[in-house]
Specification:
It contains 7 helices and no strands.
């Protein structure tokens, strides 16, 4: 009888095989769970960094959020003038409501709410401005209407040239919409950064 006492399929070999299958299962689990989580966090952080530029500015230009504060200040001034004239009470009230919506958006720091409130305020500001210009105003009030109108127009022009929407579009087209980011974004619920001026065709 031979001196080799090894038995094929011994407990030691079975245990080693089980350990290998267990390790493979752990690795597969890690790949399935942790890689998507890491990808989601990475893509999400990149989108958040773009949206932060709404509040901090792009390439040393002023921030959209700051320009909106200037617009809100101009609206407050025009409301003060409008409140002095009975014929302008309806328009003054509309602007007051829309300005309060912008203040709410500022409180919540929600870009889409900023955009919606500002779009409303642009219309109501223009309506009150036109109404006041049609009335017989005191010399001081007429001067204030022009001052606040220029302040409002300048802030809105600065928003349009802030570069924020361009930064969003550059990231969306250059990173988010590229494979595999677009697939991961769709699967993992990562939204692209929000533009300020929305395009109704999209």
């Amino acid at each position: 009888m031979s001196g080799d006492t090894r038995v094929k399929g011994s407990d030691g070999e079975d245990s080693l095989l089980k350990d290998r299958w267990f390790a493979a299962g752990v690795l597969a689990f890690a790949l399935i769970v942790f890689i998507p989580i890491g990808a989601r966090l990475s893509l999400g952080r990149a989108a958040d960094r773009v949206e932060e530029r709404f509040f901090t500015g792009v390439d040393n230009r002023g921030a959209v959020a700051d320009y909106l504060e200037d617009s809100e200040n101009a609206a407050t001034g025009l409301i003060t003038v409008g409140a002095r004239y009975d014929a302008a009470q309806a328009e003054t009230g509309e602007l007051r409501v829309d300005k309060s919506l912008l203040l709410d958006a500022m409180e919540g720091k929600d870009i889409s709410e900023y955009a919606s409130a500002n779009a409303l305020m642009v219309k109501s500001f223009g309506a009150l401005k036109d109404k006041l210009r049609s009335l017989e105003l005191s010399e001081q009030d007429a001067a204030e209407v022009e001052y606040y109108s220029n302040q409002f127009d300048n802030s809105q022009g600065a928003i349009a040239h802030s570069g924020y929407d361009e930064a969003v579009e550059e990231f969306t087209e250059g990173t988010y919409n590229k494979f595999p980011a677009k697939l991961l974004g769709s699967l993992l619920g990562v939204e692209p950064p929000e533009k300020f001026y929305s395009d109704p065709s999209k």
